[in-house]
Amino acid sequence: AAAAAAASAAAPAQPADLSAYFSSALAISNCPSGLSPEDRFKLVSSVAEECIEAEELARLLENKANPICYDGFEPSGRMHIAQGVQKAINVNKLTKAGCTFVFWVADWFAQLNNKMDGDLEKIRTVGRYFIEVWKACGMDMSNVKFLWASDEINARPDEYWMRVMDIARRNNLKRIMRCCTIMGRKENDDLSAAQILYPCMQCSDIYFLKADICQLGMDQRKVNMLAREYSAEVKLAKPIILSHHMMPGLKEGQEKMSKSDPNSAIFMEDSADEVKSKIKKSYCPEKVIKGNPCIEYIRYMIIPKLGAFAVHRTPENGGDKVYTTPEEVEADFESGALHPGDLKHCLANALNTILEPVRRHFAEDPAARELLELVRKYRVTK
């Protein structure tokens, strides 16, 4: 968390006058979004806790109608709400701004990282389940592509592996091991040789997919920075990094959600009662904003997805109130005008509103239901 905070603090300040970043006041005439470069910049940069670099992003959006954004994911168990809802919110913003979003279904990477005990058939089943969740939770699929790593690499092996080898050749082992946190590992863990290979492959993905923008979480920052260093060395265009905020677990002190701890996160097909139970037991100290997962859920998912956070109370407890900004919620909570009990009750209701279409999809679609039943049987491995 300290590293993420330091990285965020070091992020370049957003320019007060965006027009200074654009050489022309005219929007790109062939931009499908119909937005001006300034409006595209605001929309695209809004997904990021950290943007590297803002000026490069502005130039890209001025000069390219359809930038390619990418995120890679290991199919590794049930999908939690940050992977589902937060990702869908960000993807919809980017595609609205005219970007094409490429999901790199990292099946080989999951195998390298020993997810699902390295069983590739199970990993691919989980990948198909992930896609079903995103379809059901409101992601606009019109400018979204899902590419399976194993299929794409096998189709163009020379291009891919030559880049992997060049990245490996130009970096020492210590630099590569600094990137092992992208796999949820620590530098002093007993890593397999496969896990040493992983960062070189992930770095290569960016060039293989011809990505202009890396739109991954803050936890992937180190390998994205490795790509920028490599680009400078070999004189290629540096990828722009838009790192989104990492959602904390529901328990006190949990910096991120964990699939191995079912009570640390809301999962996309949790029942209404499971959601209510998890939120009821979640860490939400009275008048405390910092480190409060319930407050973060409202800021990063509820208000962006629903447009507001509605609190329903009896008149003697303050009456009903609708909040349209996270700052309003936080001000009332910090002052004591909004009690944790009321916040939790209404947060659970809002989450269930968001998740209901996903539950319905898995209940009514036979193929989706079969995928979910299989995934629930799989043992989650770290």
Q: What is the approximate shape?
A: globular
**N-to-C SSE string, H for helix and E for strand:** HHEHEHEHHEHHHHEHEHHEEHHH
> For the largest beta sheet, what order do the strands appear in spatially?
1-6-5-2-3-4
Ends apart, CA distance between termini: 20 Å
Strand content: 5-15%
Mean pLDDT value: 89
Largest sheet: 6 strands, mixed
As a percent range, the share of helical residues equals: 40-55%
Which regions contain 5 or more consecutive residues with pLDDT less than 50? 1-17, 21-29
Count of DSSP H/I helices: 16
Q: What is the radius of gyration?
A: 21 Å
- How many strand elements? 8
Characterization of the model:
- Helix content is 50%, strand content 8%.
- With 382 residues, the chain is an alpha/beta fold.
- A six-stranded mixed sheet has the order 1-6-5-2-3-4, with helices on both faces. Strands 7-8 form a two-stranded antiparallel sheet.
- Strand 2 (68-73), helix 4 and strand 3 form a beta-alpha-beta unit.
- The longest helix is centred in the last third of the chain and has 25 residues, at 340-364.
- The two termini are 20 Å apart.
- Mean pLDDT is 89; it is low at 1-17 and 21-29.
